[in-house]
Structure formats: structure tokens, C-alpha cells
Design goal:
Layout: E1 2-8, H1 12-21, E2 27-30, E3 47-48, H2 57-67, H3 74-93, E4 100-101, E5 104-105, E6 107-108, E7 118-119, H4 125-139, E8 143-146, E9 149-157, E10 160-168, E11 173-184, H5 205-213, E12 217-218, E13 223-230, H6 242-246, E14 250-253, H7 272-282, E15 288-291, H8 297-303, H9 305-312, E16 323-332, E17 335-337, E18 349-351, E19 356-357, H10 369-382, H11 385-388, H12 409-426, H13 433-453, H14 460-481, H15 499-502, E20 506-511, E21 514-519
Parallel strand pairs: 1-2, 1-11, 2-8, 11-18, 17-19
Antiparallel strand pairs: 3-7, 4-5, 6-7, 9-10, 10-11, 12-17, 12-20, 13-16, 14-15, 15-16, 20-21
The structure holds flavin-adenine dinucleotide.
């Protein structure tokens, strides 16, 4: 198959690029499950942008840089904040319905923001965005969507990307799709951890695919752990949005004592890493709860209908009861290194959204900046779409065929559970050299075992696990290398921030099967 733009992934980043690039050429979207299945669809709190008169781009920049703990790219942060209002106009043009207030759109606040600037749609902002964009994509004759199609690897000629190998999961066939430009918009990696807010699709495929192709991968040690996810036996780690704290919910311990102000003057609105670590430590002595009861039933039902409904499924009425919470892996600040147009270190390969590392988050992400980042940079990337039409369409002569094979699921499931638990225990919220060393050894063993299992062919379960092991290795290697604590990365053996030696990034590259670690 041939196309102008091959977009891998149907979250906010992939759909936004597709809608914009379709003005210039044929767009083909492949996505590994149904179109709506994505991290985007689960986003609750909202999208940050400067939309009120008493706010300013400069304040948004400062808030983002403060949370980024010295490693955010200032130029990219400036672009992000400046382009924020345009990104919101863009979403409104697709029919996204944000909540309204008397004088315009309703704005809320979240941790790290010095004022209310988060637009939202109840507590289901992502679903509203994903739905509106999916509708626009379906109506656009220039865009074809192939669901249940899994990107395995990129096709490269002379170190340039000419397309990707795609597994049609239902037909069990691998196809070569040739494109003038290939776009990775495959989302996050949260599912490599046992406890996560992310859905099963978040296995880091795009980052692993790009690494195998030789792309530069940066800032992988900075995994953001969300402080408040539901902590109830039998329930998933469902996200209890930061917006609850933004609207006045407080954190209390078993004794009913509010504790966050003892650790940070911003209290419940301190940056996520500080709250996550504080809760993690409090949990060693007993349970931790969020309390929003004082806001009243009608407010809670109107502002957080989805969270209220979801918790009721697990016998918890948040209008009357405390919400037991614990942290879980939530977001990867690093990824495939890109510039503001999504261009990577490989020609004709772009990356947008959570799988990309634009540098705006640095060592930690300001709440609600990720949906914004996805829209801003995929829109800028699409501005070059016309220019990419000049790229030649590739054809490949001889290559080894990739074969579909029904690999028994039992061992793969066992290895996946082992990987996710070990990563949570050894490279989680609090990290130490010894545990990370053990994890690197474990990952080498898992890699070797998968090489044997994969000798007969591939299936999706196998491909995802292989990617998870690759990405877990990148996270562990980078975290092991950074001998300091900064942002989301906390080392018990190096608990302080070391600006003298570590005001720099770690990036990883693979050449001829060997992984190289560099600092810059
Ligand atoms: C519970 C939750 C709440 C959040 N709340 C907020 C919030 O309020 N505000 C905010 O700014 N951010 C929030 N985030 C983060 C934000 O949602 C994500 O960073 C953002 O949606 C990422 O968008 P994306 O397009 O990059 O990836 P995604 O939306 O995850 O989409 C990735 C797509 O790629 C596809 N894909 C992956 N691998 C392959 C493959 N090998 N082949 C084919 N297709 C593939 C997936 O199926 C999916 O369609 C939240 C995240 C979660 C999990």
C-alpha cells in the first residue's frame, strides 16, 4: 500500500496531524485497537492554555519551567505557551465542547499552575476531544483509518524512513505500507508498570520502534507518577483527577490529619512528584485519603460526574466517603527526540504527543500540558506537510518476510506480569542503584527469552511485550545513570539535586544492536 502520510496512532496527536495534513495529501491512520482506545480518551482534568485577560503567556512559561526542574527547553516552552490559545481555537473548530462559565469558558486550576487556566469538559475532557476529532476524521474523505492494525517496525532505506511494517491483526497478515512521511503518535508507556492509570495500549511501541530504527531517545528516566489513583481492593488504579484538589479536596491520613502543608507550602497543589513521594511514604504508616465531601453533593455531581459514577462501581460514594488513594505510573516526560515540527533524528520520520520528547516537560510535566503539547506540535508539524509531498515514495526490493504465529499466551502473560511488578518495585517512585542493577539483569534475561520465543514468528501479545521490555530497559538505564534526584526521578542514594554535574539530558541510541548512553 502507498500513501502520502502514514500516521501510527489515533489519540489527540495522530488525529490532529491527520486532520491538518489531509488538506495536502492522502492520510492513512493505523491504530492497534479501536480508534477511540487511547490515553487521550481517559484524560480527565483538562488542557492548559492562557485564555483570560489577567493570565499571561509569561506566567504559563514560568509555571512550566518551575515544574520542569531545570531541564525544560526554554525555546520549546515559549512556543508551547504562545501557541496555547491557537490550539484551543483549533479544538473548538473541531466541535470540542468545553465547560462554560458566565463570562466565557470555565477555567480550573491544578498543581503547579499559579492561576486557573485549565479548560475542561466536566471530568471527561479527553473523551470529549477524542470523540470530536474522531467524528471529524470519519467525515474527512482524505483520511483512511485502519483499526486493529499494529505497527511493528519502520522500513528504512539509507537511514531514511520510507514507511512501516503493519500487522493486520484480524487477517493475521503483515503488509508493507510506503509513505512519503511516517508519523509516530503511539502515546505513552505507563502499562510497563504494575500500578498505572494508563490503559493496556500504553506499551511504548513507538519509542521501541524508533529506537530499533536508530532514533535518538531522550529523558526516559522522568516517569511521572500521579499521586492520587483509587486504592481499593479489587478496583483498578483509576485516576482521581488533580482537578479535585484544584477545587479544594484535601489529603488526610488515617487519623484524619491534613499533612501536605508540612511538606510543601503549596499543600495539595504542590507539584506531582512531591505529593506522590509524600503519599508513598505516608502509606508505609497507614492509608491516605482524598476528602472532597465539604464541597457538597450537588457541586461534586456536577463537576465530577464520571469520577463519582466510576467510584460507585466499587461501592464508594465520594459525596459521603473519603477516597482511599495511592500513586501510580502516569506519564512519560521523555521519548523520541524531536524539534518543534516533530522532526526526529531519522529523515521522513516525525513523532508527536506522548511518545515524543519535545523538551517542554524537562524533568517533570506541569498538569494539563500534555494535551496542549500534542496539539501545538502536531499542528506546527502539519504546516510542513505540503513540503513533505516532495519526498519520494519508496518501494523495497528484497526483504525477509515477517510471519504471523500463534504463540501460546501463558508464558507471555507470566513474563509480562513479572516485568510490570519488578519495574514497579525496582524502578518506581523511589529508586536505588542496587535494585536498578537487578532490574537491568532481569531485563537482559527477559530479552534473551523473548528472542527464543519469537523464533517462529510474531503476534501482537509478543510484539507488545518485546516493546515493553525495550522501553523498561531505557527507563532503567537512564534512571541508573542519573546519580541525583530531580523532578519525577528520585534516588534514595542520591537524594539531592546536583546542578553542577546533572543539568543535562541523558539520551540513548541503538547502533548494530548495541545500546549507547550519552549525556548532553
Ligand atoms: C487517566 C489519564 C488522565 C489524563 N489526564 C490528562 C489531563 O487531564 N490533561 C492532560 O494534558 N493530559 C492528561 N493525560 C495525559 C494525556 O492524556 C496523554 O499524554 C495524551 O492523551 C497522549 O496523546 P497521544 O495522542 O500522544 O497518545 P494516545 O492518546 O495514547 O494515543 C496513542 C495511539 O497509538 C495507538 N498505538 C500505540 N501503539 C501502536 C502500534 N504499535 N500500532 C498501531 N497503533 C498503536 C494506540 O492504540 C492509540 O490509538 C492523562 C492520561 C491518563 C492515562
Amino acid at each position: 500500500m502507498k500513501t502520502d502520510f502514514l500516521v501510527v496512532g489515533s489519540g489527540i496527536a495522530g488525529l490532529n496531524f491527520a486532520l491538518k495534513a489531509a488538506k495536502y495529501g492522502k492520510v492513512t491512520i493505523v491504530t492497534k485497537k479501536e480508534i477511540m482506545e487511547s490515553n487521550t480518551n481517559l484524560a480527565q482534568g483538562g488542557i492548559a492554555a492562557v485564555t483570560r485577560k489577567d493570565d499571561s503567556v509569561q506566567l504559563h512559561i514560568e509555571d512550566t519551567l518551575n515544574v520542569g526542574s531545570g531541564l525544560s527547553n526554554k525555546r520549546m516552552v515559549k512556543i508551547l505557551a504562545e501557541q496555547g490559545p491557537e490550539a484551543i481555537r483549533n479544538l473548538l473548530s473541531f466541535g470540542v465542547a468545553f465547560d462554560k462559565a458566565k463570562n466565557g469558558l470555565h477555567l480550573t486550576t491544578e498543581g503547579g499552575h499559579s492561576m486557573a487556566r485549565v479548560l475542561h469538559s466536566g471530568d471527561s475532557t479527553g473523551k470529549e476531544i477524542e470523540h470530536a476529532m474522531t467524528e471529524s476524521v470519519r467525515e474527512n474523505p482524505g483520511i483512511e483509518v485502519f483499526e486493529d492494525c499494529f505497527a511493528i517496525n519502520l522500513i528504512l532505506v539509507n537511514k531514511g524512513c520510507i514507511g512501516a511494517k503493519i500487522l493486520d491483526i484480524k487477517k493475521r497478515k503483515v503488509h508493507d505500507v510506503f509513505a512519503r512521511t511516517t508519523i509516530l503518535a503511539t502515546g505513552g508507556i505507563g502499562y510497563i508498570y504494575q500500578n498505572t492509570t494508563n490503559p493496556e495500549i500504553a506499551t511504548g511501541d513507538g519509542i521501541a520502534i524508533a529506537l530499533r530504527a536508530g532514533a535518538r531517545i531522550e529523558d526516559m528516566e522522568f516517569v511521572q507518577f500521579h499521586p492520587t489513583t483509587l486504592n481499593k481492593a479489587g478496583a483498578p488504579h483509576f485516576l482521581i483527577s488533580e482537578a479535585l484538589r484544584g477545587e479544594g479536596a484535601i489529603l488526610v491520613n488515617d487519623m484524619g490529619t491534613r499533612f501536605m502543608l508540612e511538606y510543601d507550602k503549596m499543600g495539595e497543589l504542590a507539584p506531582r512528584d512531591i505529593i506522590a513521594r509524600t503519599i508513598f511514604n505516608e502509606l508505609k504508616h497507614g492509608s491516605v485519603y482524598l476528602d472532597i465531601r465539604h464541597k457538597g453533593r450537588s457541586f461534586i455531581l456536577e463537576r465530577f460526574p464520571m469520577i463519582h459514577k466510576e467510584c460507585l462501581k466499587y461501592d464508594l460514594d465520594i459525596t459521603k466517603e473519603l477516597i482511599p488513594v495511592s500513586p501510580a505510573a502516569h506519564y512519560i516526560c521523555g521519548g523520541i527526540k524531536t524539534n518543534e515540527y516533530g522532526e526526529t533524528s531519522i529523515s521522513n520520520l516525525l513523532a508527536f504527543g506522548e511518545c515524543a520528547c519535545t523538551g517542554v516537560h524537562g524533568a517533570n510535566r506541569l498538569a494539563s500540558n500534555s494535551l496542549l503539547e500534542s496539539v501545538v506540535f502536531s499542528s506546527l508539524g502539519a504546516q510542513k506537510a505540503e513540503q513533505y509531498l516532495k519526498n519520494k515514495l519508496g518501494t523495497l526490493q528484497k526483504q525477509k518476510e515477517t510471519v504471523f504465529f500463534d504463540i501460546e499466551p501463558q508464558e507471555l502473560n507470566y513474563l509480562k506480569t513479572e516485568l510490570r511488578k519488578a519495574l514497579w518495585d525496582y524502578v518506581g517512585i523511589i529508586r536505588k542503584e542496587k535494585q536498578m542493577g537487578l532490574m537491568l539483569n532481569k531485563l537482559e534475561r527477559l530479552k534473551a527469552r523473548l528472542a527464543v520465543i519469537g523464533k517462529n514468528g510474531i503476534n501482537t501479545r509478543f510484539l507488545e511485550l518485546k516493546n515493553m521490555v525495550t522501553v523498561a530497559y531505557l527507563v532503567t538505564k537512564a534512571a541508573y545513570t542519573r546519580t541525583e534526584s530531580r523532578g519525577t526521578h528520585y534516588r534514595q542514594d542520591y537524594p539531592t539535586t546536583d546542578n553542577k554535574n546533572w543539568l543535562k539530558h541523558i539520551y540513548l541510541e541503538q547502533t548494530n544492536d548495541a545500546l549507547h548512553t550519552h549525556c548532553c
